[in-house]
Amino acid sequence: MKKIYLIPVCLLITVYALAQQQIPLNERQHVDSLEKVLRSNGPDSAKANANFQLVEYWKFRDTVKSKTYLMRGKQLAAKYPYFKALAHFYEGQYYFNWNAAKAAAAFKKAEEAFSAFNTPKAHGRRAAAWFNYAIMNRETKGYEFITRIILEKVLPEAEKAGEKVMLAHFYTQLSTVLMNNYQFAKAATYNQKAIELLQTESPRSTNLLFAYLSGVSIYCYDGKPAKAKALLAKAKAIISAYPESVNYPLYYYNEALYYFTVKSFEQSLVSADKGIVLAKKYNQKQLHQQFLFRKYEVYGQQKAYAKARQILLDIAKDGTLMATANDKATIYAELSKTSKNLNDYKAAYFWMNKYQVLTDSIHKDQTALKINELETKYRTAENHQKIAALQAQNKQAALKARNEHLYNWLLAIGCLSLLITLGLVILNAKNNRKLAAQKEINYQQQLHELEQKQQLKVTKAMLDGEEHERERVARDLHDGLGGMLAGVKIGLSGWSNNNSDLSEDKDLNHIIGQLDSSVSELRRIARNLLPETLLKFGLEVALKDLCEFYMRDELHIDFQTFHIQKNIALSIQLNIYRIIQELISNAVKHAGASNIMLQCSQNDGVFFVTFEDDGCGFDTAMLENKKGMGLDNLKNRITFLNGRFELKSVIGEGTTINIELNTNVDG
Question: If you ran DSSP here, which 8-state letter would residue 303 be given?
Fold first, then answer.
């Protein structure tokens, strides 16, 4: 529960975190050196490059100066093909902060132009162009597009460039994308790879500062403040020497985030206020709004709801943090929650309606699943490349063996000793070919294992998505519609009591009775969707409660348990509960059973389920050609738990089902 209050703001941080400028921390010295180049008698290519770097330096501070340097750089680059390509890239940098469409078009032109140059520097620039192009399309194409571009375009080009610092930079950017899709473990892995490279290759650099601050965000959102504190201290050690750095607001943002995570709310407000001043100074609109959202969260924790709501209204009016449906939905949900805390139910209802309209079109789980699939494809492609390399080695070894064999025949006369030696060489070559073939088989097996693991991830994501949706619907029914129906009933009852001539009205009492039955039925449905007994008392009590729920005069359920352990992981317990729930439901709906016997037992890590009913039975051969959501869900859950499923049924004699499940699966 400690991470829930941190998650909404995670949706709002991507653009600025991915748009950080690659400018040395000693910015004044950097600018002075570029101006010195422009005043010198050096070649036009050097002056063009200096102008372009000043475009990036001024793009947030002063767009007029940025454009001036862009036009000068274009003029100087006109006779140099490579620098003409560079001009497209920095045109994108100029538009970066205020016209995403023009910036995207410029970066795409730059990528196409750099493809004509097969040099490490060109590959590096092409990687940067691809990355910025993806960021500029975030609002229209989403995180899945950004992830695919990074894995399929950016990282391969960065590797061709041969620059470890650049590769580390893009690892940091990939970790930010994963963080914004709640993939905290993977985000931390890629960010740590970046830190390890940069600590060796570029200590005390801007890139290392970004990697440290990215790690602070990841560990704060993942509820690991101790790790975040260590990285924040390292970031401060780097940036404290450069008090005028444009990256200081980002440091204060992460400092405020850390203090918020450890519930030092007053210190969080101090850091946020420092960051707001600097964000205004450097024209960092995105980050300025993010600081306001951070203050909103602090006020919410302090129960200063009036201040909190006013900040949210200001954020909504500004619009910077509402560029995507996810971000907008987050703001609407927080406005509804804060209005409710202020007892302004009319406003809470208004903002909740706007939130509901947006959330119906958002499929966040699908995006996370696609990102996992893309990462797996990227790793699989690397293994395919290794297999291709081994195949090439096999061909070279075979050709070498044939040439040596021919040469051996030409020198065979009088060279018996040499022939024996060459025979040994041929034998060695054959052994090498066998070894290479065996390596290829091993790589094929690894690919197969990767595919199986990916399929397991897909199954887990489907089951998690189903449970999350059940939970959402149950809570919405119980807290939303249930509360409204209960309110209507109370209102009618009160009205009838206040009007004595209506208190005995049969139709009105009948309506109140119907409302009472509707509330009970709605809560029954919500309870069935979200087994709170399981969450509070464990699997054995929940299964007993489930059996009692289904029992009635015409149906008896004999429930027996043996040695069920209480330390089974909650996700495993929930899957076992759903399996048994599906068995009972099928027996009630389709078998017409009068008696059901359910036995559940456990032996170490194996959970056994025996289910028997005296229903009508059925022909099991029909299952081969018949599919249904209930049967498919049952098989998916059993497969996910590495289980075994045995079904026996005779028409007119009932059905027997035996299931074995593994409780040690990583669920």
Answer: T
List, edge to edge, every strand of the sheet that includes 595-603.
556-562, 595-603, 606-613, 654-662, 644-650
Residue 26 DSSP symbol:
-
Dump pLDDT digits (tens) for 627-652. 554 677 788 888 888 899 999 988 88
**Residue 272: closest CA among 304, 243, 305, 295:** 295
Spatial contact of 654 and 614, defined as CB atoms under 8 Å apart: yes
Cβ neighbours of residue 415 closer than 8 Å, sequence gap 6 or more: none
Q: Is the pLDDT of residue 207 over 50?
A: yes
Mean pLDDT comparison of 286-295, 404-413, 471-480, 521-530, highest-scoring range: 286-295
**Given a cut of 70, is residue 392 above it in pLDDT?**
no
CA distance 38 to 35: 5
Which residue is it, tokens 């059901």? Answer: 596
- Determine the pLDDT at residue 367: 52
Measured CA to CA, the distance from residue 496 to residue 507 in angstroms comes to 12
Which is it for the CA torsion 411, 412, 415, 421, positive or negative?
Answer: positive
Contacts of 340 (CB under 8 A, 6+ apart): 348
- Give 596-599 contacts, CB < 8 A, sequence gap 24+: 596/555, 596/556, 596/557, 596/558, 597/557, 597/558, 597/560, 598/543, 598/547, 598/557, 598/558, 598/559, 598/560, 599/560, 599/561, 599/562
β-sheet bridge partners, residue 562: 601
Q: Residue 83: which residues within 8 A CB-CB, separation 6 or more?
A: 45, 48, 49, 73, 76, 77
Phi and psi angles of residue 360, each rounded to the nearest 5 degrees, phi first: -65, -25
Which residues have C-beta within 8 Å of that of residue 100, sequence separation ≥ 6? 136, 137, 139
Using an 8 Å Cβ cutoff, are 164 and 191 in contact?
no
Residues 213 and 256 sit within 8 Å (Cβ to Cβ): no
Rounded distance between C-alpha atoms, residue 76 and residue 640, angstroms: 63
- Separation CA 88–CA 559 (nearest Å): 72
Amino acid 482 reads G
> Using CA atoms, how far apart are residues 48 and 34, in angstroms rounded to an integer?
10
Asked if residues 635 and 579 have their Cβ atoms less than 8 Å apart, the reply is no
Q: Rounded to an integer, what distance in angstroms lies between the CA atom of residue 69 and that of residue 48?
A: 9
At 319 the pLDDT is: 84
Count H helices and E strands in the chain, helices first.
28, 5
For residues 616 and 322, what is the distance between their CA atoms, to the nearest angstrom? 58
Residues 6+ apart with CB under 8 A from 121: 161
CA-closest candidate to residue 458, choices 577, 581, 365, 360: 365
Rounded to an integer, what distance in angstroms lies between the CA atom of residue 16 and that of residue 249?
11
Report helix, strand and coil shares of the chain as percent, to nearest 5.
75, 5, 20
What single string gives the DSSP state of each residue in 133-148?
Answer: HHHHTHHHHHHHHHHH
State pTM to two decimals.
0.50
Closest C-alpha to 14, from 142, 126, 125: 142
DSSP character for 321? G
Cα separation, 58 vs 67, in Å, equals 9
